[in-house]
Write a structure and sequence with these properties.
Elements lengths: L6 H5 L7 H6 L23 H8 L20 E4 L1 H8 L7 E7 L5 E8 L3 H14 L8 H6 L2 H8 L5 H4 L12 H9 L17 H13 L2 H7 L11 E5 L2 E5 L2 E2 L8 H19 L5 E5 L7 E3 L5 E3 L5 E5 L38 H9 L1 H5 L7 H12 L6 H15 L15 H4 L4
Antiparallel strand pairs: 1-2, 2-3, 3-5, 4-5, 6-8, 7-10, 8-9
Helix pairs in contact: 12-16, 15-16
Length: 433
């Protein structure tokens, strides 16, 4: 048996580091170093370059971040055996990978290693970047993006301001306020000294990572600036490497379509509560979905429902107001077109109604979850309410009222038992739960 090698020695042995070793780096946090025993080190012989390709580091060291890359020998991640064969595939088309994470090699918790975007979208994006620079089919993504006019402005900037993000396609940045952008910089976890609204402590590469992430998929940024630890309905962000991010694990909502009635009622009740918190919260931000499906919501093993994918969440600052979006064609560049049509136009933030997320959920998600679960006449009333609140022609007040009525119906249909650990045993003593 070969002796275990540290990261420095491994880097000098192209034939040694396995893809699984590289991917295991993805799910780490800031705890003390822990050396894995030799028996736990994967012995799959794949090339070092293949691991870099899988992570996206071969073309872009500054895509999402490297916080997990730097720590991957300090922590431990174990993938399920059933996923190991997938991870060895050169294509690597899976959108996410289940893994188990430990701080001490004794206790483990589930985590999720996810692509920022699909492999196919990455390939489209890479081709567009190379074409933008009149480069061959393959090029250094980082080198091309560094030369853009937008990034040169970022290099000179001390503070992230609305003019620096105009034209980016993310719903998060459709009408950004200075308060929101300051929150992005202050809580950005891929830099060592977060906490300031100024970017003086950002290296050039830090700025490029933030810009690229905002342009491609703002999901990891939302996890950082509105953390679950502060009560936001989002999973915990644990770090990133290349084009992957790591967060606490949830099971997608569609896996619960066949759940028993009391569990379906509980999940639907929670989902309506989540949407309510997005409309009304102490920070006076109005969150709205531009698209929903059941895979965008997830459930922790304690029964608690969270937003699993925040990529289509828009944010409007009701306290400070939002900067008007750029007119058609203004501020459009390669960062505007990495994944979407450069000509696509988003609606004005002034036209986003209060009911928008409710209409989408009542139309796309709740009918499948609640269909045929309850006896008549309760089921008929639920179906009628879902039809009502799924009609976008109705005034906001009518849709919001229908959602409130649905919560009233669902509340007594929930039960109080250990399956719902997020509210048990509190639910035995307080009707609030």
């Amino acid at each position: 048996m070969e002796p275990w090698l540290g990261p420095e020695a491994a880097a000098l042995r192209p034939g040694w580091p396995a893809l699984l070793l590289w991917v295991s780096a993805l799910r780490c946090s800031v705890s003390s170093p822990a050396s894995p025993s030799p028996s736990l080190v994967p012995r799959v012989r794949t090339s070092y370059n293949f691991g870099r390709t899988f992570l996206g580091l071969d073309k872009c060291n500054a895509c999402i971040g490297t916080s997990i890359c730097k720590k991957f020998f300090k922590e431990e991640i174990r993938f399920d055996n059933r996923l190991a064969s997938h991870l060895r595939l050169p294509s690597g088309y899976l959108p996410s990978y289940s893994a188990n994470y430990s701080d001490d090699s004794k206790t483990w918790r589930p985590v999720e290693v996810s692509r920022l975007v699909s492999k196919q979208q990455n390939e489209i994006s890479d081709r567009r970047i190379c074409a933008f620079a009149a480069a061959p089919k393959t090029c250094s993504i980082e080198r091309v993006l560094r030369k853009t006019r937008r990034f040169q402005k970022w290099l000179q900037a001390k503070r992230l301001t609305p003019d620096l993000v105009r034209g980016l396609p993310s719903p998060l940045l459709r009408c950004p306020s200075q308060r929101l952008l300051d929150r992005v910089v202050r809580r950005y976890a891929e830099v060592p000294d977060a906490g300031s609204i100024f970017m003086d402590h950002f290296t050039d590469r830090d700025k490029l990572r933030l810009l690229y992430t905002l342009a491609v998929n703002a999901h990891p940024i939302l996890l950082q600036i509105f953390p679950g630890a502060e009560g936001w309905p989002l999973p915990r962000y644990l770090g990133s490497c290349g084009r992957f991010l790591i967060s606490t694990s949830t099971s997608p909502l569609q896996e619960f379509y066949s759940a028993p009635p009391d569990q379906a009622a509980d999940l639907a009740y929670q989902l309506l509560g989540v949407l309510e918190s997005l409309r009304s919260n102490d920070l006076n931000y109005f969150f709205y979905f531009t698209h929903v499906d059941a895979g965008m919501f997830g459930i922790f093993n304690n029964g608690h429902l969270f937003i699993r994918d925040a990529s289509t969440l828009g944010v409007i600052d009701r306290q400070e107001g939002s900067q008007a979006a750029a007119r058609a064609g203004e501020n459009k560049d390669i960062f505007s077109c990495l994944l979407s049509d450069c000509q696509a136009e988003l609606p004005s933030c002034d036209t986003v109604p209060e009911k928008q997320s409710l209409v989408l959920v009542c139309r796309q998600v709740l009918p499948r979850l609640l269909q045929g679960k309850f006896p008549s006449p309760v089921q008929e009333e639920i179906d009628a309410i879902l039809t009502w609140c799924g009609e976008d022609t109705r005034p906001d007040a009518e849709v919001l009222g229908a959602a409130s009525r649905l919560k009233d119906i669902l509340r007594p249909l929930r039960t109080c038992d250990p399956r719902f650990a997020y509210r048990y045993p509190d639910c035995k003593y307080n009707d609030k739960f």
